[in-house]
Structure formats: C-alpha cells, structure tokens
What does this fold into?
Amino acid sequence: MDDSLTALASIIQIAVAPVFLLAGIAGFLNVMSGRLGRIVDRARVVERRVTTLNDAARIERASRELRTLWRRVHIINWSIGMCTASALMVCIVVVGLFVGDFWSLHIETFVVVTFVLAMLLLIAALLLLIKEVQLATRVLVAGQEYSD
It folds into this structure.
C-alpha cells in the first residue's frame, strides 16, 4: 500500500506543472475575452453612430472602422479558440499521466505529442493576440477616430 501511495504522490507532483499552465492559460483567456467584449461594444457604438451621420467622408471613416473592428473580432475569436484548445490538450496530458500510470500503459509518446500540441496552440493563440493588438494600435495611430 505504501508503494502505491508513493507512486500516486509522484504522479500528482508531475501533474501539478500542467495545472499551473492551465492557470496561466485561464489568465490569457480572461484578457482575450475582455478585449473581445470591448471590441464588440465599440462596434455597436460605431454602428449606431453610422445611422446618424450625413457626411460621406465620416460615413466612410466609420465604415472602415467597422470593417477593422469586425476583423479584430474574427482574429480574437480564433485566438480564444486556440487558447481553449491548448487548455484542453493540457487537460488531456494530465489525464494521460494518471491513466498511463494507473493502468501501467506506455503512453509517453502520446503525452509528449499532446503537450507539444498544447504549446503550439498556445503559441498560435498568442501570435493572434499580438496581431489583434497591432491592428488596434495601427488604427489608433492612423487616426481613424472621428468626432461627433
């Protein structure tokens, strides 16, 4: 019985690192969902404003801003999806560690591939986040904001 408890404690120690990774991914998801909410709120404001504009130049600027906002929504949605998929892969790694040890399965390759896939998905999610932030900054610098 002591050997099995020692083995279980060892597996729990190994599984703790991916659980910390899950906490980090949750933080990223929180940031991304906050950005998504702000983008959607801004898009709603601009859409309402377009209906009240009469000047063709202002309507064009608002339309460009709307296109940019919806592009940002698309990018951040992909980022959220990849981040979520990464978290799911990390969960599969944790389950794989426990199942593999419990049933004495040799699934080291599966665990390694799943973990690498999780990291690749996280990298892709963060690259998309960077792209969305750069797009938001570029629009701000370009001065597409207009006054009432």
